[in-house]
Amino acid sequence: EVQLVQSGGGLAQLGGSLRLSCEASGFTLSTYWMSWVRQAPEKGLEWVANVNQDGSEQYYVDSVKGRFSISRDNAKNSLYLQMNSLGADDTAIYYCARVAWGRYEYWGQGTQVTVSS
Amino acid sequence: DIQMTQSPSSLSASVGDRVTITCRASQNINNFLNWYQQKPGKAPRLLIYSASTLQSGVPPRFSGSGSGTDFTLTINGLQPEDFATYYCQRGDGRIFAFGRGTKVD
Q1: pLDDT at A1 over 90
Q2: What is the pLDDT of residues B44-78, one digit of tens each?
Q3: How far apart are CA B12 and CA A51, in angstroms?
Q4: Measuring CA to CA, which residue among B64, B60, B61 is closest to residue B52?
Q5: Are the C-beta atoms of residues A78 and A22 closer than 8 Å to each other?
Q6: I need a surface site. Which of A20, A82, B46, B57 has the fewest CB within 10 A?
């Protein structure tokens, strides 16, 4: 059974940092692109970042470029999102998701990130 | 970047109604268009991929159509469990933008 189990997140101060993790099981992580998607309170889904199978390519939404970093450790079956210089607009539920032919069939359970002054 | 414009942003419907949601891409994305359903407090669920292919386990009252820039999600015979928010998402390239969502209530 494919599972994506997220950890990390929580409360951060304005300008602070957080690291999200997503542990994969039930499939071979190294064969899939992976993404982070977020959802601000009462807002829609926003794609945040993609990483290719070996981590050599990363893509980001403009609003997080230079602040967020997506990475992976296939040996540990894990995906990460390092978030720096956090702002109030980064407050959201963050989901990791497996990419297959441009679609998201499997999602993590979501983790809340709250940025406060 | 390609923008995804979804309409309407919300609609009111009743059980048994036929519901249609549209999604327009700012550039040709061929058939690389996916639809998701999301209920409060839950992760999104893939309904349709490649514009018109029903994901396994999704009831056949859901259907998708379109190609290029204009796409449609149709629910034939709305059921109580279908009251939710629906999102389109482009599946081509390396940036997988979502539409802003349509809330069905």
Answers
A1: yes
A2: 999 999 999 999 999 999 999 999 999 999 999 99
A3: 38
A4: B64
A5: yes
A6: B57
Dist. CA B77–CA B43, nearest whole Å: 24
Interface test with B, best of A34, A64, A103, A111 (most B CBs within 10 A): A103
Burial of A109 (0-12, 13-18, 19+ CB in 10 A): middle
By a Cβ cutoff of 8 Å, what residues of chain A touch chain B? 35, 37, 44-47, 50, 57, 59, 61, 95, 99, 101-105, 107-110
Residue A105 near residue A3, CB atoms below 8 Å: no
* Short-list A91, A97, A117, CA closest to A109: A97
User: A58 falls in which pLDDT band (50, 70, 90)?
Assistant: very high
